[in-house]
Write a structure and sequence with these properties.
Length: 176
């Protein structure tokens, strides 16, 4: 397993999840704030399944969503990064922010994760699948330079009949 992958920014550490991150993840998934990622008021067992999928993809693919850790406090703030289930039409730059909104931290983490996906993983493309009502995620995608791609295929989400928007990310300057 490649859990030793670590990215540092000015304020953050992006790393693979560990057991200590589960409580912050579960607390977020138990709230209505998580409804835009297909969760919302989730019980601990279902939260464990979500958390385990993130950790499992690290084992199966060698990458997954990074846990975003505050360098100063050590607090787990969310999950962000490359996400690529085998049933999805394209690799995604995804995020769920547990406790960091409004501080520029999400943009900082997303930029680092996007650069990693293109420069280290060698992705040619990346999209973000976003619930149409999630204005904060739409704003973040646009701030990252992503544009709406109405022609792109969307994944089949088991838990929702609602279509999602597809935002396509440009390759960062200097990407392979």
């Amino acid at each position: 397993m490649t859990s030793d992958i670590r990215i540092e920014t000015d304020r953050l550490i992006l790393r693979a999840p560990c057991m200590e991150d589960f409580e912050a993840c579960a607390a977020f998934l138990a709230t209505p704030r998580s409804k835009n990622i297909g969760a919302g008021n989730m019980n601990r067992l279902d939260a464990w399944r979500v958390f385990s999928r993130i950790a499992g993809m690290w084992f199966l693919r060698g990458y997954s969503l990074f846990v975003v850790e505050d360098k100063v406090t050590g607090k787990s703030l969310g999950a962000i990064g490359p996400w690529n289930p085998i049933t999805w039409p394209e690799p995604e730059l995804g995020w769920s922010i547990w406790d960091a909104e409004g501080k520029g931290i999400v943009f900082e983490a997303a930029s680092a994760a996007r650069d990693y996906a293109f420069n280290t993983l060698g992705w040619d493309t990346a999209v973000s699948y976003i619930d149409a009502s999630n204005s904060r995620s739409i704003a973040l995608a646009e701030r990252l330079g992503a544009t709406l791609d109405p022609e792109a295929a969307t994944p089949d989400f088991d838990d929702s009949d609602e279509p999602c928007l597809v935002y396509r990310h440009p390759k960062p300057t200097g990407a392979l």
